[in-house]
């Protein structure tokens, strides 16, 4: 009898544990309608795997009026876009392609989920970019470079025979926000990715992704002909090398007819490339482009290049690529990181944007938080993405923003694209932190429509992921919208940059200066603190990096009085007693910024604790726990940076700022056993 009672209790508890909230549903929390829209209320012609998915989504989740799905070739100008027109009885969705119909179905489901009015709609959507792509830095051994959400989602050892259900869930999540492309593997690519056995595994993923409108791309190692093919070298002008790539491309397209193309990191951070043979980036990119062109493939060639030289690292990509402008094939697009250093919490936009007037350019953002507290810190990245996209390059006159340069509206680009380095892993919640899901969502939404505001995106995501209750939505939205600036304040305010712990980049190490190490990998290279002041002089009396920007920006950035204060120490070496616009000295301003960052994170903790009645216990506790870590880390950052910089400024920390709780010598002893691969 006792055993029977235990069995009954276990049986009753099982559903609760089985359905425990783990965050795996992401923002796709459409109510499952038991008696949803009937099939006869979904009007469509033809049969197509993508169309069938759209109809299934409607049957399962749509609660409104009848829906008609039309493919109309006259809407070709909308590319992947669509129109939605409705009255109280019917919604008519039209698109040139079935993929557009699927995107539109997710659009009306989003409207339903956020409790928006779906009567009398008159919507026309056209994506800002043709290629909206996630770059996965996943390795074949299951590790993820700069990954903070567990091991890789791709189980290469199981493929092609064993297929995880998460592959289709991943494709569905991407389609719901308009992402249509994915690079499966790390830019620091293994040549083995191009082995036949791995290509057969890639084919399985491509087949799963295709009905959701997603094309597969691969990062390739430039030395693959030599390493895999046994050739003497991988010189792009060597006929044998060219033939090897031709054969490999034919093999790929036989398996995957809609394969997108290659992403290449070459002659950067030890990766092989055409310069190994005295050739240029254009020589290497064009060789691959010529081979892919008959198949409709493209080459995304990364401009993240720098070498241990006397030249300012912030200038090197510009110096290396500007002479090559106009020398790339029309199916090559140069992929440029949003800033000139490396995904810092705040950077000015990369001066290459707009400078390459005869070459297609695309922005590369980092969704994974390599420099923003990994998956421990709440940092909503839409404001960072928007800051770059809305920056005016002045390349073609006023209004030549990074967005307009890259989306083809200012220039007639044959290819338009935007990339985000993914923050996705095998963790149940996909991203290691519930709030990090918002950054995946934000990238997708901005890739589809870069005119959306950060506030609109946050509002959507909160309502889709949690609740429509304004008592929850408003405070959490405010927390998200201020979180990026908060992180900048407690890490690197006023234009400070790259003062992280060596290699893994978690936590502060402004004193970092490894004997014999590369100077441009050391924090002291970037902050240049001394008894006179702090900051990197990039004016015409320093490295003259300001000269790479178009007028009037070169003058604005180069003038200490005109330079935006949030970039001041990026462009100027500033005296400690320099008077800021609010009347404080630079030292005082620095102190108050760090203190403000700490206070804001503590405020986030208070806000989140008040949200407990509106959210499930599991996600509430997960986020509460992460905020505790973030709060401790913020104090760590504040104390480390202020105590270290105080050794140069010799000035007191203002008394109305929270006092340090650490000793500098103790902070210098912290050495975390972290790797840059998960």
TrEMBL record:
Protein name from the UniProt record: xylan alpha-1,2-glucuronosidase
Keywords, alphabetical: Carbohydrate metabolism, Glycosidase, Hydrolase, Polysaccharide degradation, Xylan degradation
A single GO BP: glucuronoxylan catabolic process
Pfam families hit by this protein: Glyco_hydro_67C (PF07477), Glyco_hydro_67M (PF07488)
Residue span(s) of domain Glycosyl hydrolase family 67 catalytic: 113-430
Cellular component terms per the entry's GO annotation: extracellular region
An example Gene Ontology molecular-function term: xylan alpha-1,2-glucuronosidase activity
Tree of life domain: Bacteria
Domain (Glycosyl hydrolase family 67 C-terminal): residue spans on this chain: 431-656
Catalytic activity, EC: 3.2.1.131
Species of origin: Chryseobacterium limigenitum
UniProt-annotated catalytic positions: 269, 342, 370
Reactions it catalyzes: Hydrolysis of (1->2)-alpha-D-(4-O-methyl)glucuronosyl links in the main chain of hardwood xylans
Family: Belongs to the glycosyl hydrolase 67 family.
Taxonomic placement: Bacteria, Pseudomonadati, Bacteroidota, Flavobacteriia, Flavobacteriales
SUPFAM superfamilies in the record: (Trans)glycosidases (SSF51445), beta-N-acetylhexosaminidase-like domain (SSF55545)
């Amino acid at each position: 009898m006792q055993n029977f009672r235990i069995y009954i209790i276990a049986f009753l508890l099982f559903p609760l544990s089985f359905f425990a909230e783990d965050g795996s549903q992401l923002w796709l929390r459409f109510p499952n309608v038991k008696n949803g829209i009937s099939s006869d209320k979904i009007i469509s012609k033809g049969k197509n795997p993508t169309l069938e998915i759209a109809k299934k989504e409607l049957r399962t989740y749509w609660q409104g009026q009848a829906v008609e799905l039309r493919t109309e070739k006259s809407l070709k100008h909308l590319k992947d876009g669509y129109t939605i027109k409705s009255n109280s009885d019917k919604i008519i969705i039209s698109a040139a392609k079935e993929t557009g119909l699927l995107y539109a179905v997710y659009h009306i489901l989003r409207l339903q989920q956020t409790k928006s009015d779906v009567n009398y709609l008159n919507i026309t959507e056209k994506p800002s970019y043709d290629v909206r792509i996630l770059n996965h830095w996943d390795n074949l051994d299951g590790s993820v470079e700069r990954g903070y959400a567990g091991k890789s989602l791709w189980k290469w050892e199981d493929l092609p025979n064993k297929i995880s259900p998460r592959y289709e869930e991943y494709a569905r999540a991407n389609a719901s926000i308009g992402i249509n492309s994915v690079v499966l593997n790390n830019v620091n690519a293994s040549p083995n990715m191009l082995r036949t056995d791995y290509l057969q595994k890639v084919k399985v993923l491509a087949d799963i992704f295709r009905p959701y409108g997603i094309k597969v791309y691969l990062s390739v190692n430039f030395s693959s002909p030599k390493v895999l093919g046994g050739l003497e070298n991988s010189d792009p002008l060597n006929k044998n090398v060219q033939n090897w790539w031709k054969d490999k491309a034919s093999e790929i397209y036989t398996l995957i007819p809609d394969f997108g193309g290659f992403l290449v990191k070459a002659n950067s951070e030890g990766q092989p490339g055409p310069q190994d043979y005295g050739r240029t980036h254009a020589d290497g990119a064009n060789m691959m482009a010529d081979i892919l062109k008959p198949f409709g493939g493209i080459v995304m060639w990364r401009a993240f290049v720098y070498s241990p030289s006397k030249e300012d690292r912030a200038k090197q990509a510009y110096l290396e690529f500007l002479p090559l402008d106009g020398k790339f094939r029309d199916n090559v697009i140069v992929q440029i990181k949003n800033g000139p250093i490396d995904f810092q919490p705040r950077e000015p936009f990369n001066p290459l944007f707009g400078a390459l007037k005869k070459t297609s350019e695309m922005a590369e953002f980092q969704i994974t938080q390599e420099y923003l507290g990994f998956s421990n810190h709440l940092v909503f990245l839409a404001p960072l993405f928007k800051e770059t996209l809305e920056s005016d390059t002045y390349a073609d006159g006023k209004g030549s923003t990074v967005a307009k340069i890259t989306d083809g509206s200012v220039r007639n680009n044959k290819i338009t694209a935007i990339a985000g380095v993914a923050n996705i892993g095998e963790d149940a919640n996909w991203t290691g932190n519930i709030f990090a899901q918002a950054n995946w969502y934000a990238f997708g939404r901005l890739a589809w429509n870069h005119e959306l505001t950060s506030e609109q995106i946050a509002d959507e995501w909160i309502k889709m992921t949690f609740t429509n209750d304004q008592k929850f939505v408003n405070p959490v939205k405010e927390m998200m919208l201020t979180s990026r600036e908060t992180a900048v304040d407690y890490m690197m305010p006023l234009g400070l940059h790259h003062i992280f712990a060596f290699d893994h980049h978690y936590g502060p190490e402004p004193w970092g200066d490894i004997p014999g190490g590369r100077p441009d990998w050391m924090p002291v290279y970037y902050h240049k603190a001394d008894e006179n002041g702090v900051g990197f002089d990039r004016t015409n009396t320093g490295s003259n990096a300001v000269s790479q920007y178009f007028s009037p920006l070169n003058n604005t950035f180069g003038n200490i009085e005109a330079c935006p204060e949030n970039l001041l120490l990026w462009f100027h070496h500033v005296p400690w007693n320099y008077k800021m616009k609010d009347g404080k000295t630079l030292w005082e301003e620095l102190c108050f910024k760090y203190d403000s960052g700490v206070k804001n994170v503590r405020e986030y903790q208070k806000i989140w604790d008040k949200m407990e009645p509106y959210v499930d216990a599991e996600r509430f506790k997960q986020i509460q726990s992460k905020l505790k870590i973030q709060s401790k880390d913020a104090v760590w950052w504040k104390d480390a940076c202020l105590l270290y910089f105080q050794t140069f400024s010799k000035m007191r920390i203002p008394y109305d700022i929270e006092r340090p709780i650490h000793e500098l010598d103790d902070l210098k002893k912290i050495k975390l056993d972290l790797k840059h691969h998960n």
